[in-house]
Amino acid sequence: MMYNPYGYYRQTFPPYPPGGQVGGYPPYPPGGQVGGYPPYPPGGQVGGYLPYPPGGQVGGYPPYQPGGQVEGPSQGPPQGPPPSYTPQKPQVGLYAVDPGGIRRCLYRYTYIWLRNGRHFWFYPVFVGRDSVAGYRWSPSRYRWVYTGFDLNTIDYFQCS
């Protein structure tokens, strides 16, 4: 061990030996087979798992499309702007937004009021256990912008 000026000792290790054998372990074998496991097979199937199918569809999810879009009811944001009117927010207050309630608004123009006072048109394409994602209308840019929200931040919503 060598003395270190910071008050602790560090251990120095000898350089790797020429054959690659370190600490009593044998060097990697030429075929790459280590620890009794067979080498990676040419087809990509490892440990009982099947390789990705040709279309890329895994576990019931729609296949990935270049550009981040997935096949399904919607291929992206709506083609045009949202309705030109702004709905009136009801005076009834809800304590929490239920994923089952907002799920009926999937792929429909939905007006959302957040707890922070902001409100806007939204086009939901995904509803999770505690979140919703979709396209928010940006009037200043006159286009739809992909975004997501925690359901706890939504005060009220209304589908059109």
Structural features, described:
The chain has a domain at 95-160: Roll (SH3 type barrels), CATH 2.30.30. It is elongated, with a radius of gyration of 28 Å. It has one helix at 99-103, and strands at 2-3, 9-10, 110-114, 119-127, 131-138, 143-150, 154-159. The chain has one helix and seven strands. Strands 6-5-4-3-7 form a five-stranded antiparallel sheet. The protein is mostly beta strands. Strand 3 (110-114) and strand 4 form a beta hairpin. The relative contact order is 0.12.
Write the layout of secondary structure elements.
Elements: E1 2-3, E2 9-10, H1 99-103, E3 110-114, E4 119-127, E5 131-138, E6 143-150, E7 154-159
Describe what is shown at a glance:
This protein is mainly beta. The chain contains 1 helix and 7 strands, in the order E-E-H-E-E-E-E-E. The longest helix has 5 residues, at 99-103.
Strand content: 25-35%
What is the element string, with H for helices and E for strands? EEHEEEEE
What's the alpha carbon Rg, rounded to whole Å?
Answer: 28 Å
* CATH class identity of the domain at 95-160: Mainly Beta
If helices are DSSP runs of H or I spanning 4 or more residues, what is the number of helices?
A: 1
Shape: elongated
Uncertain segments are: 67-72
How many strands, which pairing sense, and closed or not: the largest β-sheet?
5 strands, antiparallel
Q: How many runs of DSSP E, i.e. beta strands?
A: 7
CATH architecture descriptor text of the domain at 95-160:
Roll
Mean of residue pLDDT?
Answer: 75
Q: From the helix content, strand content and strand pairing, which structural class follows? A: mainly beta
Strand order of the largest sheet: 6-5-4-3-7
End-to-end separation? 74 Å
Give the % helix: under 10%
| CATH fold description of the domain at 95-160 | SH3 type barrels
